[in-house]
Amino acid sequence: MSKTKLAALKPGIHTERPLKKRILDNWQLYAMLLIPVILTVIYKYIPMYGIQIAFRDYKASRGFMGSEWVGLEWFQRFFSAPTFARMIKNTVLLSFFSLLWSFPIPIILALMLNQMRFQRFKRVTQTVLYAPHFISTMVICGMIRIFLSPSGGLINLIAGTSIDFLTESSAFRTIYIASGIWQDAGWGIIVYMATLSNIDTSLYEAAKVDGASLFQRIRHIDIPELTSIMVLNLIMSAGGLMNVGFEKVWLLQTDLNKATSDVIAVYVYQQGIENAKYSYSTAVGLFNTAVNIILLIAVNKIAGKISEDTSFI
Predict the structure, then answer these.
(1) What is the homologous superfamily of the domain 87-134+184-306 according to CATH?
(2) Partners of residue 57 on adjacent β-strands
(3) Predicted local distance difference test score (pLDDT) of residue 283
(4) Residue 3, CA distances (Å) to 8, 9, 14, 17 in order
(5) pTM of the complete model
(6) Which three-class secondary structure state does DSSP give residue 17?
(7) Strand 68-69, strand 56-57: pairing
(8) Looking at residue 311, what is its pLDDT?
(9) Cα(179)–Cα(25) distance, rounded to whole angstroms?
(10) Which of helix, strand or coil describes residue 147?
């Protein structure tokens, strides 16, 4: 009897099929995969060719290859800019505090919703929490300006004051972070709720029989189940630590709060779009991306040592 027939008769024996055979047998799946791969190459990889203008004195009339090669001149100019230290500080602090405060909120909300037993109330609560995510950043910023208006704003009416909070540098980070939590915390609970829904209910029943309290069940059943996805989300968030949301900062920025709102993303827009300094803005954006990659690798390594489940790393 041949080895192929023997392998078919014995389930413990497997033979590796040729790649061509596997592709022909599953050509529909490979055809479906081809579409996102092509789109990714077109919109993500091919534009990387333009990164070279960060090292050239780019002139649109001369094209990429015709523009003069200047090496690291634009990076040196950025590092010596008067606002360099302030932009780095503002970008890091704004991102760090956003991560510090916004990361645990969806986890806490998911744990609370998971304990609700009234399904109708639970669904309504989830809908209310999801809703702000679908409001555009432009509208969100308009609402923030109305709420914080010194004349008739809700916050000032409640506090009995007439403070223009958007002109206060010390208040900008709080406004940015608080509005971000309100807008995205509800949407962030989806992946955690999906993970919690897969927990075997018999574990809760057994824990109740053993006399475990609510907090003990959360600590020993829910949180261990969420650990892997929490670490994954932390890695993804840390990888974008330098990517402060440009739209919201740009729309809420004023001349009086630039001490804390002047970030790299806004600077790239101003230099590249408003001042048409394409090479310089590309160099600044490339520096920002390089820092993000370094942070992503560092957090990835740290998480791999802390977490026992490193299958996603």
Answers:
(1) MetI-like (1.10.3720.10)
(2) 68
(3) 93
(4) 9, 10, 10, 13
(5) 0.80
(6) coil
(7) antiparallel
(8) 47
(9) 51
(10) helix
**Does residue 173 sit in helix, strand or coil?**
helix
Q: What is the pLDDT of residues 12-60, one digit of tens each?
A: 444 567 888 888 888 888 888 899 999 999 998 998 888 899 999 998 8
- CA 40 to chain CA centroid, Å, is 19
Out of 65-69, 120-124, 297-301, pick the least confident.
297-301
Residue that the structure tokens 């993000």 belong to: 292
Average pLDDT over residues 187-210: 88
Residues listed for the chain:
313
Q: Which helix (H) or strand (E) holds 56?
A: strand 56-57
Cα separation, 29 vs 31, in Å, equals 5
Q: How far is CA 204 from the centre of its chain?
A: 33
Domain ranges of the chain: 16-45, 87-134+184-306
d(C-alpha 282, C-alpha 268), whole Å: 8
**Residue 229 contacts residue 144 (beta carbons within 8 Å):** no
Q: Angle of helix 137-147 relative to helix 169-197, nearest 10 degrees?
A: 130
Percent of the chain with pLDDT strictly greater than 70: 92
| Cβ proximity of 288 and 301 under 8 Å | no
User: Which tokens is 191 given?
Assistant: 């992946």
Whole-angstrom distance between the N-terminal and C-terminal Cα of the chain?
A: 44
CB atoms within 10 A of CB 154: 12
Token pair, residue 97, equals 């505090």
Cβ–Cβ < 8 Å for 212, 294 = no
Long-range CB contact pairs, 78-83, < 8 A, 24+:
78/280, 78/283, 78/284, 78/287, 83/262, 83/267
Q: Which of 194, 192, 195, 213 is nearest to 204 (CA)?
A: 213
Q: Are 207 and 99 in contact (CB under 8 A)?
A: no
What tokens appear for 81 in the block?
């800019």
